Amino acid sequence: MIFDVTYDESKTKQNQRNNILNQAFRLFIEKGIQNATLQDIAEACSIQRRTVYLYYKNKEDVALELVRNVILEFKRVSVSSKIPDYLDTGYARIEYMLYTYLEYLLNNEDVVLFTVQADYFFHKSYGETNAGNAFISVYQEHGQIFQNELQRGIKDGSIKKQYSQNLEAVFFVSLSAVMALAQRFLFREEIIRMESGHDRKSISLLVEVILSGLKA
Questions:
Q1: What angle do CA 168, 73, 16 make, to 5 degrees?
Q2: CA 135, CA 140: separation in Å to the nearest integer?
Q3: Which of 34, 51, 114, 189 sits CB 3.0–4.6 Å from 47 for a disulfide?
Q4: From residue 67, how far is each of 30, 76, 83, 155 by CA, in Å?
Q5: What are phi and psi of 11, to 5 degrees?
Q6: Residue 26 burial (CB < 10 Å; 0-12/13-18/19+)?
Q7: Mean pLDDT (whole number) for 114-141
Q8: Is 112:186 a contact under the CB 8 Å cutoff?
Q9: DNA-binding region spans which residues (predicted)?
Q10: From start to end of the chain, where are the E strands?
Q11: Of residues 175, 165, 168, 161, the one with CA closest to residue 214
């Protein structure tokens, strides 16, 4: 993912800000947010550390800026992935949503790996920051769409009625399971392949299992 944020500042400053963000994004994935330093970021940008302070007050501030932009990217993908009208059953529409979500995760490995680092680094302060609140907002927005399609499938008979009282839980378990397995494989794929012989194709199998459990 390439960051290209826009602020009310000169083009030179904006380019430098984006340079800082993109180098920090790479370093946070490679070293972990907790291990990377502002000095590391400055050196990667070929600038002095004091220059970074002109844009961000500390490492956490840089990380939060990245989190906010990852959230915006998730929102952008959600908007651009409108469910086609020709899919006229709730099951078909849920199937489209899950496979679109999976495709995005597999095609954006760096975003998935960054979420691993961000989840670990901010887990104690989650919900106490604007970024945390924004994640909650995105979760609720996606959850409502998913639940509406589940309800549609229950009404048209394409999804099992037994889930009618647990729509939010079905959404949470389904997307969380896919994200968690994607994070695990993309973070430790070589180790998992050596240990068990499995690779990222197993994530597609997980989606199939979820869908088979929903289908009436």
A1: 150
A2: 9
A3: 51
A4: 16, 14, 26, 38
A5: -60, -35
A6: middle
A7: 70
A8: yes
A9: 37-56
A10: none
A11: 161
Q: List pLDDT tens digits, range 130-175.
A: 555 655 666 677 788 889 999 999 999 999 999 999 998 999 899 8
CB 24 within 8 A of CB 16: no
- Which of left, alpha, beta for 197 (phi over 0: left; psi -120 to 50: alpha)? left
Q: How far apart are CA 48 and CA 157, in angstroms?
A: 63
Nearest Cα to Cα of residue 211 among 186, 187, 175: 175
Tell me how far apart the alpha carbons of residues 61 and 84 are, in angstroms, rounded to a whole number. Answer: 39
Report the 10 Å Cβ neighbour count for 81.
14
4 three-state secondary structure: coil
d(CA 121, CA 90): 37
Mean pLDDT of 13-41: 96
Q: N- to C-terminal Cα distance for the chain?
A: 38
Nearest to 53 by CA among 16, 26, 25, 2: 16
Q: What's the rounded Cα separation, in Å, for the pair 185 and 13? A: 37
> Does pLDDT of 209 surpass 60?
yes
Quote the pTM value.
0.81
How many residues does this entry show for the chain?
216
